[in-house]
Fold:
Amino acid sequence: MDRVGDYVLLRELGRGVHGRVFLARAPARLGLDGDPVAVKVLSVPGTDSGFTAVAEELTAYVDVESTRLLEMFELAMDGDTVFYSMEHESLGSLAAPARGTTRRQLLAAVGQAARAAHDLHEAGIAHRAVKPANVFLGRAGAVLSEPGLAHLLSRGQPLTGVGTRGDARDLEFVDPRLMQGGDAGRASDIWSLGVTLHVALTGGGLYPALMSADPMVAVRMYLRSQPEPDADLSDGERSIVVRALQPDPAARYQSAEEMAEDIERVAG
Structure:
C-alpha cells in the first residue's frame, strides 16, 4: 500500500489488531505546509455497520476542547478502506521516545495525559486505551491519542489487550473490573494512567509474571495477582501508583485531574 485517498504513505509506524498506522504526506487541501501526518488504516470494511459508530465516537472526540489531545484531521473512506488522519509527533511516544527524557519530563508527560483524560471524562468519553504508546511527546508537551476503538470494532471482545490476538503485556493496562463485567469510565482510565506512570518511570510492568505467559493463561494469572510496584520508585511516585491501582474504584483518585495534580507536585 503506497497511498490511501489523496494521502501518500511514506512508511509504516505500527500495527495492531484493528489496523495499521502510517507516516504520510498530507494533501495540500489540509493546509499543513508540508508537515507529515499519521494515517490509521482500519481493518474494518467500509460497509460494516461499525463505521457509523466509529464516526460518531471520533466526532465526539474532535469536539472536546483540550490542548492535550492529539489533533485529528479527517475520517474518510477510499473504496471499502476506512482511514483517518491525525497529527504526527516527531518526538515519539512514552513507549519509544525519539530522544532521551529526564524523570521530570516523564512525570510531566503522564500528568499531561491525565489532564487530557480528564477533559475526555468531562465530555462523557472514556479513553479505554491509555498506555505509553498512546502518550505522544510534542515540543509543547505531551498529548494523548484518540480513544481506543476496540469496543466498536470487535464484537464480543470489548477490552483492548484481551484475547488470543492480544499481547499479554497489555493486560495490566486494563482495569480488572472491566474483565469482570464493569463499565469503562473515569476509574478504569485512572487505573491505566497508574500503570502508564509505573512503566514510564521504571521501564517495567507491575505484573512480571505476565511477560512470558500465554495470553489466555495470563488473564487468569492477572485476575488472581496483586500489582508489585518497583522498589526504585520514590515515596511520592509509589503513593500515586498505589492509589491509582486500588481494587475498589472508590479508593482511587476520583478524577484524572486530581491525579495530575499529585504527579505535578511530585515532579516539582
Q: What stands out?
A: The helical segments are 50-62, 103-122, 150-153, 176-179, 186-202, 215-224, 235-244, 256-267.
